Amino acid sequence: MNQRSKNKSGTHGALPDLDFRDRLGALRNLPEFFRLIWSCDRLLAVFNILLRVIRASLPLTMLFVGKLIIDEIVLISVTAGGSAVENPDMSILTTLVLIELGLAVFSDLLGRGIALVDSLLGDLVSHEISLRLMHQSARLDLECFEDSEFYDKLERARRQASSRILLMSQALTQLQDSITVFFLAVALITFKPWLLLLLTITLIPAFLGETHFNSQSYSLMYGWTQERRELDYLRFAGASDETAKEVKIFGLSDFFGKRFQKLAGEYYQVNRNLSVRRAAWGGLLSMLGSLGYYTAYAVIIYRTVSGELSLGDLTFLSGSFLRLRSLMEAILIRFSSIADSALYLRDLFDFLEMEPRISSKDESLPFPETIHDGFTFENVSFRYPQMEKWVLRDVSFTLHPGEKLALVGENGAGKTTLVKLLTRLYDPAEGRILLDGHDLRDYNLDGLRDAVGVIFQDYVKYHLTASENIAVGRIDDRKNTNRIKEAAQHSLADKVIDNLPEGYQQMIGRWFKQGTNLSGGEWQKIAIARAYMRDAQLLILDEPTAALDARAEHEVFNRFVELTFDKCAVLISHRFSTVRMADRIVVLHEGKLLEHGTHEELLAARGQYSELFQLQASGYR
Prior knowledge:
The chain is an alpha/beta fold. Helix content is 62%, strand content 9%. The chain has 24 helices and 10 strands. A 6-stranded mixed β-sheet has the order 6-7-8-3-9-10, with helices on both faces. A 4-stranded antiparallel β-sheet has the order 2-1-4-5, covered by helices on one side. A hairpin with a 2-residue loop joins strand 4 (430-435) and strand 5 (438-439). The longest helix has 53 residues, at 253-305.
């Protein structure tokens, strides 16, 4: 591994220092992996093992039949006395040849059956791992997704969804080959047992060498996780519908291409050095295995020449030792590979075992059907993990039932963070948030989020149908056409959808066939409709009209006021024409509550709100 990889610990965390005991210890992950396979399809798993056990017995049987064929040929020749026989008895020989043919065909069919079952079971396992990763990602705290080290863990876990299919095949092949080795060893144990021991000893160096290089390969993959994520990002940035316009306008193709080429070249160089050393040492150490086999072969030839063995015995024994040597070498090397693959499994299972910090208590309160006292912030402070700066500091105010509250402040004032605390995407570092007198953390988390309708300024543009894009606001009602259409009407998205070729069934986005793009304002109306899909007692809109024209903005907010007349609502906006419609306005500055009141009260106070309002109003004079 080059110096770059060794130095990565300074920025990305130390590389795993693994010894042989660590790799053996990683085998503890295999039972969990087998349980995962078993849970996917028990019938296929049992059928796979059954096919392999049957096929494992065939090599010895075929070698023995081959011995009988040669012995029968020799017997016929000896009977003929070296002269041609007019009608030799070929019945036994014919039968043996047909048996060998049948065994060969049967072995081939079993091999194809195993390959088929492996493929089917592998797809199921891959899908199951992907599903578990999706569900686990949904469970984990939002703060995880704002941490680069978490993305390294997620990246290593994601790669297991496809690459661990090989591990499944390796483990089952290991079982099959072990059974074959057992049969061969039992058959050969009576013939010079020390040769079996010699064969085993000469294969151990190759096993140890492979173990060493597998460990280095894992360390390489682990240490370069962040760079591999960067390579994936550069692939996306250089060839994506989301970046295509700027790549063309700003001429970024060469920039992304050269950056990709430089990083990929560095990775290739390190990986090549490891691969070359691995191949060189592997070839050298495998010669010892060949030495063990040819020692056994020489002994067999000597005993055949001396008359102790028949030609059939020679064929059987030499073939058995050759097959045994090949299988034992494969088993030892595969064992090393499986042990190191189990290290990758540890990455997967470690990720799946992560527990969210934000969750419901064992005896959590149900979210109230009607909010009575409202939401109260009591001296709430918050800063993001691994950050020293406070984003919110000692914030106190109350959102009353049925009140429309606007949050105003410059970028970075803490407005969106406050909303994240209100929806328990984060919990306060200090202070508390009360709902009807109870700490927000005492309520059932699912119930809380089910009662909140929120659209963030960085809403997601899903490449789904128009109907599904709205239904994500309450996905359980995705079949409820009336509810979806009603939500679209509330947000003015119905007019957008009516102009689409396939209406509500139109695919939005260009990733899939017959998809269509929307303008920023059209997307925003679709996104706002998601909030209206819910019977939310708290509705939050974070910069909901940034892409709307003035007429659409005015109409959207008139409807917003009408539809939330008896609900709590929070609005974040930089447009004072919108903000002034709120019942009360909270002004944040550098994470602190600077002032609050109605539009008229704040103008009269001549504070920051008044200053910001006058600045914006001057642009229209």
